[in-house]
Amino acid sequence: MRGSNLTLTFGENLIYDNTSFIIEDNDKVGVVGVNGAGKTTLFKVILGVHELDSGKINNKKTVGYLPQEIIIEDESITVLEYLESGRPIKKLEIELEKLYIEAANDPTDKTLKKISRIQEKLEYYDCYKYENILLKIIENMDIDLDLIDMKLKDLSGGQKSKIAFARLLYSKSEILLLDEPTNHLDEKTRTYVENYLKNYKGMVLVISHDIKFLNNIVNKIMYINKTTKKITVYEGNYDTYKKKLELEQELKEKRIEKEEKEIKELQAFIKKAEQASQTNHALKKMGKDREKKLAKKLENLELREKKYNKLRLNIKPNREGSKIPVKINDITFNYEGKEPLYKNLSIQITNRERFLIVGENGVGKSTLLKLILGRLKPTNGNIWYGNKTDIAYYAQELELLDLNKTVLENIDKREYSEKELRTILGRFLFYGDDAFKKASVLSPGEKARLSLCKILLEKANLLILDEPTNHLDPETQKIIGENFKNYEGTIIVVSHNIDFIKQINIDRLLILPTGKITNYTDEKLEKFLKETKENKNIDKKKNKRVK
Predict the structure, then answer these.
(1) Cα separation of 241 and 152, whole Å?
(2) Are strands 54-58 and 220-225 parallel, antiparallel or unpaired?
(3) Is 433 helix (H, G, I), strand (E, B) or coil?
(4) Stretch among 202-211, 355-364, 454-463 having the lowest mean pLDDT
(5) pLDDT by residue (tens digit) across 77-92?
(6) Domain boundaries in the chain?
(7) Cβ 341 vs Cβ 397: under 8 Å
(8) Fold match flag (1-59+180-259 vs 326-542)
(9) Exposed (0-12), middle (13-18) or buried (19+): which is 114, by Cβ within 10 Å?
(10) Per-residue pLDDT reduced to its tens digit, 231-278
(11) Contacts of 67 (CB under 8 A, 6+ apart)
């Protein structure tokens, strides 16, 4: 893939400025840059969604795309139907059958060439062994075979994301574009995906804040520089790129300092020449020469790398919470027509506790949070709240934002003036006219920051957090982890992010679907992950067929 002289603007914002790049057919490339640099935009240019102002990307290969936010147009179909649609085998077979009938009646060269092309496509898509290929992906992606016949609309957000990823891997596209692919993956599935992508016979471009993931799969890094609007491709993994970039920026800073010193000296000489007597022709002439030299230096002076603001988060409760903020009493819950997710589950949460809920996708982690919030009702049992319990909720799918409202309208609270709200938004990196953007146009990272802002304004003493680090860069993850560690209230959290879990000092651990509650240690979490992997392997050996 070759990008030549790319220039793109959105309104007054310049995204790319006459920049070029080359990626080889089997390269595995990490696409990096600060928020707003144009990473996801580049994917949309490759897909033909955005049109360049000038320049072009030469690509004749098939492209598969996994966006950050999974949108499935028809959720009424089954998981198996959706997965199978990743390769157009059935459609091609129907088309081929029609052509055979047509050729039997009138065997023209045109019809025979069409038959040949379709047969080549069917062979490319492994039409004789596609079922085994799909089954292997299903197994290795840890997709429960009980899900295969379910409708997509009945799945959790995490399950949909994993299934959309499996469908993409199955699609056998020549180029894969992956935007934050590890958001919903547990450790075992991540390991499989890493190995799959490393050995993929095609090009992979991946946007990810997961440095470990990038280091494990990429052989090149594509850096989009928001300051210069240029794209540079570096050989090596993420760590290698960072060392090269830091050295480049250090040398660049030295060059700029040297040029700035020379510019000051030229300006001083020119000023001296201007103040000289009109009869001092030699000095006047030298001053004119220096003016030309100064103009050239100013024109060619490199841009200093811009330092971007960091999110500032300081969540504080408005009042001390109850000694027992929430108590779950013998609850049982099942969705209509489904087996119970929990039976007689009891939990007593204590004030300022850090309580972690873990389990595979689909075992009911997010559902339990919604039961605690009162958004769902238990089939049996009840949930009791302390009289001083104030709750704030961070939703995994960011669905608490009203996409039809602006950023400012989403956080509008009577006790704050507009000026105060605009100041608070600035702490979450929403400046100026950003306040009047519709939430629907925000990136997932921006939506995540806005959701955190809403939590700040609630001043609650019980935070219920569902995958709060998804969509956020590593630096922001550390910032919110540090804040939650020091938060003077209670936290109930669902998270796959091991570094974040360790950072916030978890007290106890609930393991689903068993319902086992234990005091937290890093060793216990690692033991749970290991046992989950072993149990999955046993289950796979027992059942080797797709229903």
Answers:
(1) 40
(2) unpaired
(3) helix
(4) 355-364
(5) 999 999 999 999 999 9
(6) 1-59+180-259, 326-542
(7) no
(8) yes
(9) middle
(10) 999 999 999 999 999 999 899 889 999 998 999 999 999 888 888 888
(11) 40, 179
Length in residues, the chain: 547
How far CA 466 is from CA of 373, 376, 401, 473, 532, in Å, comes to 12, 16, 15, 17, 21
Distance CA 464, CA 365 (A): 12
DSSP strand pairing (326-333 vs 380-385): antiparallel
H-run or E-run covering 445: helix 444-458
Find the helix packing angle between 187-198 and 130-140, rounded to 10°: 140
> Which residues does residue 383 pair with via DSSP β-bridges, in sequence order?
328
Classified by CATH at the fold level, domain 1-59+180-259 comes out as Rossmann fold (3.40.50)
Are 171 and 86 a contacting pair, CB within 8 Å? Answer: yes
Distance separating alpha carbons of residues 201 and 26, to the nearest angstrom: 6
Strands of the 462-466 sheet, one edge to the other: 391-394, 462-466, 490-494, 354-358, 508-511, 516-519
Angle of CA points 19, 25, 29, to nearest 5°: 60
Peptide bond before residue 474 is cis, with ω within 30 degrees of 0: no
Q: How far apart are CA 7 and CA 14, in angstroms?
A: 8
Residues paired with residue 332 on neighbouring β-strands, in sequence order:
380
Q: Which fold has domain 326-542?
A: Rossmann fold (3.40.50)
Query: Which is nearest to 15 in space by CA: 65, 55, 48, 66?
Result: 55
Q: 8 with 38: CB under 8 angstroms? A: yes
List the Cα angle 333/510/345 in 5-degree steps.
Answer: 30
8 Å CB contact between 515 and 538: no
Exposure string of 252-279, with b = 16+ CB inside 10 Å and e = fewer, is eeeeeeeeeeeeeebeebbeebeeeeee
pLDDT for 83 equals 93
CA distances in angstroms from 228 to 16, 17, 220, 231, listed in the order given: 8, 8, 20, 9
Cβ 321 vs Cβ 458: under 8 Å: no
Q: Which two tokens stand for residue 187?
A: 């450790």
Structure tokens at 303: 């841009």
Match 């507009």 to its residue by tokens.
418
* Spatial CA neighbour of 93 closest among 123, 120, 118: 118
pTM of the predicted model as reported, rounded to 2 decimal places: 0.76
| Cα gap 157→416, rounded to integer Å | 34
Q: What is the pLDDT of residue 12?
A: 81
CA-to-CA distance for 368 and 375, rounded, in angstroms?
A: 10
The CA distances from residue 149 to 71, 80, 169, 245, 250, in Å, are 20, 6, 20, 49, 57
Q: What DSSP string describes 458-474? A: HT-SEEEEESTTTT--H
Q: At 189, which helix (H) or strand (E)? A: helix 187-198
Residues 138, 543 contacting (CB under 8 angstroms) = no
Contact 389, 317 (CB under 8 A): no
Q: How far apart are CA 547 and CA 537, in angstroms?
A: 18
